[in-house]
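Progress note, project year one: complex with zinc ion.
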Amino acid sequence: MHEYGITESLLQIVEDRAREAGVTKVATIRVVVGALTGFVPDCIQFYYETMSKNTIAEGARLEFEELPVRLRCRVCSEVFIPADREWTCPVCGSSEADIEGGRELYIKEMEVS
Ligand SMILES: [Zn+2]
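Model obtained:
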């Protein structure tokens, strides 16, 4: 259910940006969602449709770009995408890695009409 709050924030950003740019209609919103955020695009979509009613962003299409988890090996600094729960470096075999990416959540682009 935490998608509710995030959708509200996204919509707020879209409205602010559209207003700043003097836009009256938003056509497409491209959202980047990292795998570690746990956000489900379908849920965001669902809330979005309800919340965007009577706003500048009503009827806009949401497009999601899902980013995988990326790890950086602590031993050899290799950045890799782990397979499921095997967080093992493909280069040196170390299982000590730091999270490099996957927590992203932001609006990448907006198309207006
Ligand atoms: Zn390594």
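Helices lie at 3-20, 41-51.
Residues 73, 75-76, 78, 89, 91-92, 94 surround zinc ion (CB under 6 Å).
No further modelling is planned for this target in the current period.
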